[in-house]
Amino acid sequence: MYGKLGDLSRAMAAFQSIANPNAFSWTILVVAFAQNGHFLEALFFFRKMELQGIKPTIFTCAAVIGIAASSRDLALGRWMHARIVHQGLRINAVVENSLVNMYARCGSLGDAMEVFDAMLDRGVIAWTSLIAGFVQRGDHARALGLFRAMALEGVMPNDITFQCLFYSCSHQGRLREARENFHSMIGDHGVDPSDEHFRCMVDLLARAGKIDRAEELIAAMPYEPVEVAWTMILGACRVHMDVVRANRVAAMALGQPCTDVESPYILLSNMLSDEQELAL
């Protein structure tokens, strides 16, 4: 409980109050530190657990695979995978999903596909992890192909799957496919679009030169537009040399909470410089 709340000192105190901690207790401790980003400490407790003669369970191994995924440590992930196989531990769906995610995030997509293809029950987590891996590599055509294959197998996508889809559609220029799936996400799958989904769609519209529609989408967002959404519009204005719109959008962007207040000014300044060079 304390680990989930991020209170690791209390989690540690609770663990130390156990006279003879078993594999379950050690696993909870490892998971607590891993989930809060303390990977070295989590691995330390994993090793200490072994030194005390307590064999890790398959769930402890899954936690270590999760650490390998989060830290992009392919060597650690492969070591744990080999160890699970060597010890004859029964690989369940949790571990399979963890392995696909780990290999995909570490960029070892051949290994990810090998685990994925061997799975008897491939759910949304495995599909999404694989799709995200190809998006990370920049192979957007393969990512879109996997999304379509996932739909054919009757697996329902989640919010992260759609985020990967929209990102790939943006880089492939597939506006129509993205728009259809955006509506399907809401109407057919009951997934409420997040600000990230909206930003992907704004980026896609802006890249396609449909700046009016991109602005309309920002206005319709149920969230306060963040600086990056306005920056996408400004980037499109620069490509199309729409100075009037850029001035207006820059003013609106600077009225929003920004992570980088200077960026709208920089884009606008660059755009005006481009216009002056063209005039010469």
Task: Report on this structure.
- This protein is mainly α.
- Among the domains are: 122-186, no CATH class; 194-280.
- It has helices spanning 8-16, 23-35, 39-51, 58-70, 74-87, 93-105, 109-118, 124-137, 140-152, 159-172, 175-187, 195-207, 211-220, 227-240, 243-253, 262-279.
- The N and C termini lie far apart (67 Å).
- Contiguous runs where pLDDT drops below 50 for at least 5 residues: 257-280
Number of strands: 0
- Broad shape: elongated
Task: Sketch the major β-sheet.
Answer: none
Strand content: under 5%
Q: Radius of gyration, Cα only, in angstroms?
A: 24 Å
PPR repeats: 22-56, 92-126
Protein name: Pentacotripeptide-repeat region of PRORP domain-containing protein
Keywords: Repeat
Pfam families: PPR, PPR_2
Descriptive terms for the model:
280 residues; mainly alpha; elongated
Structure summarized in a few sentences:
This protein has 280 residues and is an all-alpha fold. It has helices at residues 8-16, 23-35, 39-51, 58-70, 74-87, 93-105, 109-118, 124-137, 140-152, 159-172, 175-187, 195-207, 211-220, 227-240, 243-253, 262-279. Among the domains are: 122-186, no CATH class; 194-280.
What's the helix and strand layout?
Blueprint lengths: L7 H9 L6 H13 L3 H13 L6 H13 L3 H14 L5 H13 L3 H10 L5 H14 L2 H13 L6 H14 L2 H13 L7 H13 L3 H10 L6 H14 L2 H11 L8 H18 L1
Helix pairs in contact: 1-2, 2-3, 2-4, 4-5, 4-6, 6-7, 6-8, 7-8, 8-9, 8-10, 9-10, 10-11, 10-12, 11-12, 12-13, 12-14, 13-14, 14-15, 14-16, 15-16
